[in-house]
Amino acid sequence: MSSRSARDPWLDLLRAAAILMVLLHHVAQEWPVVRPWLYPYTSMGAKGVDLFFVLSGWLIGGLFWQERRRSGSVNLGSFWARRWLRTVPPYLGGLALAWTAVWIYRREPFDFGYLLFFQNYYPVMPFFFVSWSLCVEEHFYLFLPLVFYYLKRRQGLIMAVIVFLPTVLRLMEYPIESRGFGYADTASHLRADGLLLGFAAVYMSVYHGAWFERLRPAMLAAALCALGLLALDLGSRWGFVLDPLLVAMTFLGLLVALVGRKGGQWFRMRAIAWVAGISYSIYLTHALVIHAFVLVIFPRLAIGEVFALVLQLALILVAGWVFHLIFERSALVVRERFFPTGVGRTPS
What we know:
16 helices; disordered N terminus; mainly alpha
C-alpha cells in the first residue's frame, strides 16, 4: 500500500463511518428512554467493528507486504514494537478507566487476563466489553505476520485458505452455548474474517497489482452478493457460520471500490479527518462516557432527548480527544523516538 493510499481521504471517511456506526449502536442500546422500534436499525451499527477489522487488515498488510517486497524480509521485532506501541498504551489507559468504574460501582476485582488479551476467550466477559476487538487485533498482529515471515512459497494459495479458516472453524464449533457476551461472539479464531480479508487483498495489490485492478469490479460484485445474502434469513446455524464472512466481504468490496479512486477530495474535510484520527480513543472511552451520562448526568438534567443526544455525543468526542492527547499521542512520540519510521514507509 503506497503512502498515497495510506493518506487516502476515503480511508478517513471509512474510519469515521466505522466509529459512528459503533456509537449509533451503543448510544441507542443504552439510551435511558426505551425506543424498541429503533433497535432493528441501530443494531446494524455493531458491524462498524467489522469495518475496523477490514481497515486494520488492509493497513497492517500494506506495511508488512510493502516491506517484504522492498527488502525481501520483514524486521518482525520493529514491526511488533511499532504495532504494540501504537495500540497497547491506549488500551491500558482505557482498561484502567473501565476497571476503576466497575470497582467503584460493583467492587469487582481486577482480572489479570486483561493484561494478556485473554478476555475474549472467556465464556462471558466481565467488563470492558469493547476490548474484545482489541484482543482479536493483537492476536492477529502477533501470529499472522509470523506465519508469513517463515513462508516463502505458495503464499497466495495459503492466504486463500487462511481467509476462510474462521468460517470453517465456526462450522466445526456450532452450536456454542452462549451465556452472555463472550467466547461465541468474541473469540479471535472465530472473528478474524475482516482482518484476514484486508490482509489478503493488500497482498494481491502489492504483488499482483494489475490483476488486483482487473478484479476490483468482481470484488465489488461479490460484496453486493454478500450484502444480498445478509438480507436473507439464513437461520441460526448458517447465520452464525456465514454472517461474519459476508459482512467482511461487503466492507472489503466497499474499501476496494473506494481506495485510490478520484473524487475523494470531496471528503477531505477537517472534521472527518479529526474523527478518523481519534477513532481509536473514542472506541476505548465511549462506553464509559455513555454509562456515566445515563447513570449520573441525564437523571440530573431536565432537558429534551434531542439536546441530551447532542450533549452525549459532544461528551464522547471531547473525552476521546482528551484521551487521544494523553495516551495515543504520547505513545506515538515514544514509538517514533525508539522505532522511527523507515525510509519509504508510511507512519501508521
